[in-house]
Amino acid sequence: MVRKAIISSLLCYALLAQQQQVTDPILKAMQAEMARSKTLQLMGLQPYFIEYSAEDQEQTVVSATLGGITNARQVRNRMPFVTVRVGSYEMDQTNQIYSNIYSGSRYDNDFLPLDENIDLMRQNFWLATDRAYKSAVESMSAKQQILKSINVTEKLLPDNQPMPGVVKIVPGARNKVDFDAWKARTSKLSAVFGDYPQVLASAAEFEALSSISYHLNTEGTMMRNPDYLTTMRIRAVGQAADGSVVRDAAAFLSFEDTKMAPEAAMQAAAKQVGENIKALVDAPVGESYSGPVLFEPMAAAQLFGQMLGDNLRNPRRPLSEPGRNVPFQPSELDGKVGSRILPDWFDVTDDPTLATHQGHALMGHYLIDTEAVPPKAVKLVEKGVLKEFLRTRQPIKGFTGSTGHARLAGNFGHRSAAIANLFVTASAQTKPLADLKKELIEMCKQRSKPYGILVRKMDYPSTASVGELQAMFQSMAQSGSTTRPVAPLTLVYRVYTDGREELIRNVRLKNVSTRSLRDILSATTEVAMYDYVNNNAPFALMGIPGYLASTTVAAPGVLFDELEIDRIRDDTAKPPVVPPPALR
Amino acid sequence: MYKTLFAALFGACLFAQPATDSSLIPILSEELDRNFQILKTKGDPPPYFLSYGVVEENNHVINAVLGALTTNNKAHTRAVDVSVRVGSPKLDNYRRIRGDWPQFASPGIIPVDDQPGAIRRRLWVDTDRTYKAAAQRYLRIKTDEQVKAAQDKSVDDFSVEEPANYNNVPAPLQYKDDDWALRLRKLSFRFNKFPGILNSNVSMQVQREIRTYVNTEGTKIRQGRNSIRIFILARAKAADGMDLVATESFEAHDFSRLAKEKEMEEAVDRVGRELVAMLKAPVVDPFVGPAILSGRASGVFFHEIFGHRIEGHRQKDDAEGQTFTKSVGKPVLPDFLSVVFDPTIDKTAGVDLNGAYAYDDEGVKGRRMVLVENGILKTFLLSRSPVEGFAKSNGHGRKQLGGEASSRQSNLIVESSKAVSEDKLRDMLKDELKRQNKPYGLYFREVTGGYTTTGRRGLQAYTVIPLVVFRVYADGRPDEMVRGADIVGTPLTSFSKILATSDKMGVFNGICGAESGSVPVSAISPSILISEIEVQRKEQSRDRPPLLSAPSSFTAGGAR
Q1: Number of domains into which chain A is organized
Q2: How do residues A526-559 score in pLDDT, each as one tens digit?
Q3: Which region holds residue B457: left if phi is over 0, alpha if psi is between -120 and 50, else beta?
Q4: Is A34 on the interface with B (CB under 8 A)?
Q5: Do A578 and B39 lie within an 8 Å CB cutoff?
Q6: Interface pTM (ipTM) of the complex?
Q7: Do B31 and A581 touch (CB under 8 A)?
Q8: Do A310 and A194 sit in the same domain of this protein?
Q9: What is the pLDDT of residue B19?
Q10: Which chain B residues are closer than 8 Å to A209 by Cβ?
Q11: Residue A56's CB: how many other CB atoms inside 10 A?
């Protein structure tokens, strides 16, 4: 069966290659080297699957603070990526802790030539394939050692699954970003904080990635696909009198830079960030709370983005030697297929095939994933019951085939699935936000609570630094929370029984996990469409390099029957001894 | 979508060049004074010293591989380090306890344009953070029992120096990107004719660095440095799996002084030829015996085994081996050798020097220092951290952005009163071989650098990594290239075995990494004859050369 799959895929490859007249030098170089690479053989192991991809990219970056440009550059490069799998779809070198080991030396370069030099591109794919192949053979031998040392009680899942080849050459060049215009805009945007002395540090960060992606594999796939992503991040931090740091951010996303939000909208968002910092600095510290919590639509979209985004994929535990500590975190929803994870009036779908929804450009739209698999719409949750996981080529128990959601780097020889356009829809129990707020107040009255909690905005993707994030995780772990960390809250309000809202700070969610989603009582009729850039970092930390997955989450606001809010009691630094200098 | 992380080096530039007439000093000075005055009254404990050091860099990197460009990027960045001293020069927050390394600096990125509001804000925030860390550490030090016990007899933490004023920024380098891109393409293409080379490149880095420094003693310094570096590299894998590398480089502070194209072509060909020869060369056998180190190799040898051990701060740290701490006034090298450190010269033997500067990173004028005179140790390399018997800096306090200054090397110069011609030195080697009854000695022509451990706990040892090594036979057979040699040894024994030097100086320009970060340095030395050197076979990668032959259009490539 497996052998047949290989033969047919090779045949398929040859046919498709004949059909398609390739003129692009990168694809030509890939084709030439892939044909040769299939003959590699060492210790009786041959490649059964080879994948080449490349990003021919220009990155434009502009950062500014208080009207001064701190960084502005345009960088061109061509990055190659090579995957070689040895053995068979049933059993290859992946899904084990030594999946990518390599003890040899490296001779291939990080970048392909910028000149259209096919010979040199081939040289690089040749050396990169040699290294990837040797690594695969070495990993395979490590896997065989592991298999000898462990007691295999049930049949192992296959390590990989064949997918039909796709041939698609999308014409079009890299779009040309107007560098000077964005320098001026970014600088101007950053100058907004000159009106906010409460802001200690701030930045406007523009980033445009303009790329042509190339893809070739031994299953007959051949792709050329222009791929763009433009972001503007606006962030600011302030310090309250007690020393605690408060933060807020806004982000704008589009594919082409010409489709970005109008400058006035970005200016307004920056001012709002400034206003929020101003308000947060003076806001009272919240206290620990347990009771009804209302998430406004945008905050709910952020919560769903994190909770469902992190758990609607289900990576496999890698094989390892007995007793070894495996760096692996399974989905919270592992084993929950067929179980209720949301109220029965909720449905959740992820659909990367949609480009727009109600006039909103969906940021999770794409033609193929990083494994060159075209994506499918997936009904993840129906009537509150978990039906499926988003999948890559990595076979997982109970499902076959990729859903075309391999969007991020993964572990143990596989990519990671990620949500794209996530639609969280409520078919009952919906009412306008204003009514939900009344419901919150009613619940407080019934439970004799002086106020309920309303969340307007979360820090997701988080604007914390890596150091702050580590401190945050440590602090959460020490707070007695039994669940995995949840992104911090930015704008949280006490809603008093007379309807008055009061902004508070220094609180976070506690003991909140996907289990909490079952306790949603009602949802808003208003739906937020929240665009953000997802990545492999915890809380999708803003600005991290590596694979990026632009995402839109559409979700209504939700009212939870009971959630825990914890007062943060971390030690904080005193405010500056010296008063601030003039801003201009 | 994939996004790469670029080091500052690989960004692209938008601002043609930094303004040579900068308003940065007034912005820095005003904010420095404002913070200092307020902290002196409101700070508890108050600071007694504050400094801001801004490093502005323009970098342009072009990289070519076998006739094609892979990188052509520019970056322009500016960042500031704040230093705060709390306590008094006698005892402050920089006092080292039990070998720790106080670290307060954390570079703050500031706009490349002189935007006062944005720069002031960053200075203010960073000053506060640094002050708090300094005050906290100072209070901890004051209560430390060990410090208390040693306080009376301990040397000060900070020297008293005269304020300095200096402003010298050279004009930006003028060159055409496209011309150089073409030149590098052509140079790199020359590797195409050498079979067996797996990876090669020719790169150029053009750098313009402006350092601006102000402190509360009144020092105001603005100094610039232009540099061009052409780096030629080729790598290959021998049939037994050993990784081989050959390099050449050219450095200059100005294009007019950079080597001519013809010379670079020859250098590429030499690297190619030598790497191909190395592929066929026998592997070195473990060896103990006489050897000649070329001037460049000897420079690295002295930098590692001597230079790092006469850095001032190592003399006052109990965790250090302190090889020479008690040796001032005593012989430490053969009496025909002197060692000078001189940051004030910017070229020698026709080569521009990496280790040149007017003022060090603590605002102290760089000085020519004779460290060893006719074999006798005279002093140490000194920053503003005094050493017993030496209260003042000699302008060797250096650091990288983000580091804390410590005493570091500048331009190391080995001078000899027992200098003979290169040919004569070779004859002396052969005589020594006969005396020791050895069939051959070694000649180290090129080295790529080395490292040394100076700690008390670790082995007091060094390694120098040779690139091009020959066996020199006593019986007059032609020299034979060998591969896989590492020089190993312990410092004191190595010095005593230097027999003579040549009269020809070699220059090694490099980057030296240590506690305070990476700093550019040079080492200048004549060839030296050593009666006994120990060589071990370098650790070897065991993977095979590429399994498939190179793509057919190349002569270069696979082992088959």
Answers
A1: 2
A2: 999 999 999 989 999 998 889 999 999 999 999 9
A3: alpha
A4: no
A5: yes
A6: 0.88
A7: yes
A8: no
A9: 43
A10: 1, 3
A11: 22
